[in-house]
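The protein record reproduced below.
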Amino acid sequence: MASGETERMSAQDESAKPLFPVLVTGQQSDVKSQSLFPVHSDTANKPAIDLNNDLEWLENKSFLTTALLLTEEKNQSVPEQISVSPTPSSTIETSFTRQSAAASESSSEEADVAQTDIKPLNLKRRYSVSESDEEVLSVAKSTKASDTSVSEKKAKDKKHKKKKKKHKHKHKESRKRSPSEEVKQRPAEKMIDPSKTFIEEIPGLEAENAFRVDRSCEKSLWNYESVYKGHIARYFRLTNNCFGNSNITLPSIFKGEKHKNTVSRYYTKDKRKEMRAKGVFVAVDGKVANETAQYISIREKDAKGGSISKSREEFTPAGIMDPATSMYCQGKGAAGKESTEVGSGLDETFERTAYYNRRLHEDPSNVKLWLEFVAFQDQVFQDARFSAKSVLNRRLRDSFQPPRACIEKKVAILDKALKANPSCLELQIEKLAVEQDVTDSTSLAKQWDDLLFVHSADVRLWRHYLQFQQSRLSTFSVGRMGKLYHRCFRTLSPILEGKVKVVKMADTDNLEEEMIGVFEQYCSFLHQSGFTEKAVASYQAMIEFNLFRPPSLNLTPTSDCVAVFESFWDSGVARFGEPGAKGWAAWVENSGQVSTHSFIQVKTDAEQEEILQQDSALWNTWLKIERLCQGAHWLPWRPDTTKEETEDDCEDLDRMVLFEDVAPVLFRLRLSASCSRLVTQFLQLLGLVQQQGTEEYATPFHQLLLEAMHQVSTSHGVNVGVKVDSVWQPRTELVQFVQNTLRQSAAYFTGWYQTFFTSQLLQLQACKHGCQDVASLSEKQGKEVRKFGKNLLKETQNRNDLLLWDGYIRMEWALGKSKDALSMLQTALAMFTSSVTDQDHAGMAGLCSLYRTHAGICLNFTPTELVSLTGRKPSPPADCKKKVVASFVCLMDTGKFSASKEHTVSAAQVLKTRRKFQSILKDLINSPEDLSDSFGKMHAVQHVNCFALFELCAVGLGDSLKVFESSFQLCTLASQTASSPQIRMAIKGVEKELTHNLVTLLRNYASVEAVSLGQIRSRLDTGLSRFPDEPSLLRQLVDVESGSWLAGRLRRYFEQATREPASVYPVLFEVLAEMQRHAKLVATNTVHANSRGDSEQTEGMSDTGTVHRVRAACERGLQHKVAQHCPLLWRLYLHFEAKYGSIDRAEGIFYRALQTCPWAKVLYLDGVELFATKQFQELVDLMTEKELRVQIPLEEVELLMNSEPQDAAAEDTLEEES
């Protein structure tokens, strides 16, 4: 190319210098044909390049200096010289340093480098790296300036590409040829196996050859400063704790990164499929030929339990053949792979799904089966809830909540069920309950209203509707809920009276009992929301309206009776439970004359002054005063006419209850059992819980009534580690009111109910001292209770009440006065044994109870409410057993009991007594009329108890257990032939009492004799299979299993029992069992720490696992419909988490509790106690917004705290002046 043209091109491209100007030689070619490495320039016209200045920017640590790519293959080659030092990656920096140093010493050496003629090379040829850093590979390629146009160059490129593809195999051969004679003369490079990683794996490898050449031409290193981080090996630390000492925590390296932890064990798809696979039925072969065999032969069984005709062992004599070989020996072909895979995929879940689909296709009107299929979807979607991807990062509550896909599938199944059963109310209620979490409140409320409009006479639907409206925080308010309850009573009362006839209505006979349940739910709602005065006034009005209604108004319509009752309510006369109350009928007979009476007045001024003087924080002072007023203000305020008070003198208008507040809930009762149940519910509202539960606990609505531990009669004595109102501590005024209620009820009722309310007076004497059982009383308190009991027995109506005698004697026994109780028993038996006939069920029930108590004291047993496996007592002597046998002989012979005569009983007398027991037992159970009576039912229960104790002392424990088994068989036969539901319910009650007494007898006998724990467990399992919601049996189970640290059996039972519970009690006792276990563990560690003298708990068993167990039990239980609206369960969970867990987690639990139980004022007060420093004002405002009762405003407390010193000084000044 001409020199002028060269200068012109140089001037144009001065700013666009080549990216890698290694050397510039000769004439410069055209810009368009210039390559990335311009090695074909003329060196004659320009001086050599100073490598120190021009090659410093090439010192890139990540750039691998292997052979450079050459220019196009068809350019003419000019012998030039390029000096490149291809060093390995490990020594690249050293090579460049040495290269730069050599260039700076002598630039002339670079110009005189020997030139070597090199043949044209392929572009893709790569050169090996020399073993020495000083070796230089000199390559050159001639180029020729071309004046070819752009179009000709593109044509040549296309032709060159085709030629490359055609001669691809020639390129491979060219790679094997050495590049030059100099390369051939170099020592052969030692090839290293690329599969080797460590130096020790390559024998005979010298240190100078311990490197690997990367021939992959990493082009990314030309553009980036370092190697890609993904190609560098890293390690991850699985824990930040030091092994051996968990107190040392290492700092986390990845503080800002979020790591995804994966869990493969038990969470992979194959493992979950294997765990769900249906097991193989096997059975132990009873015929063992060789007794010295080292194994027990088993045989496979089919799904129905029958043995398979031919097993594989018949064709595998030594048991060494696999299934395929065994089938080959039988002359059968091996099972195909496809059939094996299909069979393995049909696990138990798919089998049950196919079963439901087949059954529902055959019988679409089976509502129970549809509901079972809906409940089964929780098990189907179990994999989605416990998948490996989200099991670690998911909240605990989400692990037990069904996913949205499960809910949508349930809704689809229910829609299909409703197409087959459009008029089924149970399916419609279930669908509304399922859609509760996925449908907006407005649409859901409209669906409820539409359903209620069609089925307005269904009480159960009303209760579901009221529960739904009561548990929605967004739309809840006390005033709105009160109107809904009043609307319910206005709708159902005309139907109960017969004024309104309903075409389709189920359970018409139980309408009265259902309405009593609604009334109890309404009064409990008022009490829990803070309006205890309205709840008490509603019960007073209902009892006066039904128990003490004038006889002249019996045939009067209910609306007219309500109008007349208003005059009695506003007259100011004493009402039910108040001192001097005579009743509505007595007031009418006296022509409306009002007699003077004393009001129950509760003053809390002195106690409030003590609280204000403590100088506590504002929230603490308000909380104490609020709880004080709530416990004291339970009776409606009325003006005292003797003190000339009027309604204007009422300081708090919420304490005054008008007639308009109680009139909408008044309705008429016809049965005496309903009236007694009404009084019993009133006593439970006041705090006196009877020991024996009622039949109402097995309903899903019983959860709304529980807010404190003392309301569960069988929970006393259970240490759960937290205090949630475990003991009822009434004020003196409340004890007086309850005592008046019991006496007035006993005066009204006769027979069994009179005895029951009178015996509750004895229980009240123990409860007023803050004790749930008599054994917890002090000696002084015990004397007071004994004195009260004796005075009670001296009353005329109680002298011949044998059940009341038995109750007092058992109280003496529980107080530890066994000798006094035994002497009193002997006196009572001598008086009443010969005077009671077999037809007198009341007398025989009391007499059998006395004989049972006598046998228990003689056998050194413990009272029923104090039975425990922890205490061990000495065995009774043989004379005591003979004494018990002789006493039961007197019971059956109706002879006179004598404690002084000899206790010698012949075998004939024993046989005669046994036959008499058996005949009376058959007569009692086979007579439905007797069991329908309360005394007759109790007579049957006590008769079986006496018969079992007789067999225990005469023969042994085995015959005693046979008595209960035969009794259960008789009850089953009687229940099958019963003619009415009432009789079946009575028989069921007998079975329940007998089951409880059977377990109590076994536990009592185990305390004095050696009894297998398996016998107690088997009877408990049998009883709980019949009555899974019985609180007394659940408490027995917890007591039996809590004696051991092994809780697997108890957890397995509750896992089965809480899958589909019918009431809140199985869920509640599961939580109590786990909390009791945790409290026991904490107490054990504390004792060990105290014994060593440590200030902190440094050793012992960790409670981490038990804390997680309690959380899981609470979360799992709160997902059930029968427990998710229970304030007591939420309070237990909240207090446990706040004490043993995280306060932040407890705050989340608190707000969840408010969303499901917005009416429970105790939850708000617990929130103030636990989170007052953050949300005190917010909680008080929320209570005011939801119209909950606030006894004392917050502003008033602030004024009292600020004005306290001034008021005290003013009072002192007034006293001095006076």
About this structure: The mean pLDDT is 76. The beta strands are 82-84, 137-139, 241-242, 245-249, 281-284, 298-301. The first strand starts at residue 82 and ends at 84.
